[in-house]
Amino acid sequence: MQNKKERLQAFFMVLPSILAVAIFIYGFIGWTVRVSFTSWKGMIPDYTWVGLQNYINLLTNDPRFQVDVRNTLLFTIPFVFGTLIIGLISALLLDQGLKGETFFRSLFLFPMAISYIVTGVAWRWLMNPATGARMSGLNLLFSKIGLDFLNSSYTATPEWGMAYIAIPAIWQLSGYCMALYLAGLRAIPDEIREAARVDGANEFQIFRTIILPLLRPVTLSALIILGHMSLKTFDLIIAIAGKSYALDMPSIYMWNTTFDGHVYGVGAAISILLLISVAILIIPYLIYSLRKEAQL
Fold this sequence. Notes:
This protein is mainly α. It is built from 13 helices and no strands.
């Protein structure tokens, strides 16, 4: 009887949170799905059913959305792998027992405490593509030290603009990956490394055959987190490049379509496609984690 009473108390304690999540997350997702199947344009609701037409038009007949998909890939690939590599290298350096480790750990983590807007404003000045009297940032630095050949148009280059924008994102989140990898390195028992050294393995072999495999769960977690963050990137790109068609992303397109153009049906379809892309990353990871916990 006591256990039943405690279970009821626990249920009523979490009931407000359950209702809030059900209404404001899953309820709104369901409403967005419904709107994405309509031809709603303008401020007056229009629930005329069009089925999958909005999705078909986006995927096959919308050149802007196709540019957005390309830009997402150009941003995601350097961002994810650059952040993972720099984070791993930083963690390996800190794991050597250097003096002042606390200072450097805090220094690497500091960019993560800054909002994307602040980061975007600072890096917009650094990556200013202007020349002549309006030159600033990195281009001005290269000109002053006689390295003019390194001057670049940065975000004004359509082909490489998204890759350049990945640089401030890497700078901001590499410290986060460093913290993940450092925790993973500290969890590896020293006895395993010492046993490998006794067997004649050098440091590179220890890193390749022992450390990297044991860090695989950390790498997977970081990959999932960074991947879904890159798909939802909005404020960093707005702060650096503004609403530029060449540097557009699905999140920006969704905002413009929904809140600027008031084409709510298409805007809802874009948001659902973003949700599906994020779910494709997260759901397999959740299944993997649940299976691993069940095995333990």
